Amino acid sequence: MLRLWRTLSPLPAGKWLFSRLLGFTVPYTGSVRPRVEELRPGHARVSMRDRRAVRNHLHSIHAIALANLAEVTSGLAMVVGLPGGARSIVTGFSIQYLKKARGPLIAECSTSIVDASVESEHRIESVIRDSAGDVVARATAHWLVGPREDRTAGRGNSA
Question: Rounded to a whole number, what is the largest CA-CA distance in the chain?
């Protein structure tokens, strides 16, 4: 994923293309149309436009759209720092809504690089700000990270 980001992001419309590919790969995340603005191991900055499809009846951005944005931001920051033989999954999630979210939003996550050699849980925080810089939501995703299982072990494969 990081290699793809580094290839596409400097190109005209490269960030847009990367973000579309992300949304295609993870369809539910794609429903909020996140746009990856910055990405490196341990850090992600993702924006989301205010549009009718993500609004609620109070004319602000829906709580679950905010949660979706926060979760993908934490996941990107963590996942691009993992070695190829690692796996991760969200096991818990909490979010505080601090202000009605309106207008374009920026979610940001900075975290330490996770050790994926042993299975362990990591709490990773994302903060979402509006265009004035005010924090509208703060979320914590609980990621279970560890080495990928060898699915061929014990199958009796012969060469």
Answer: 63
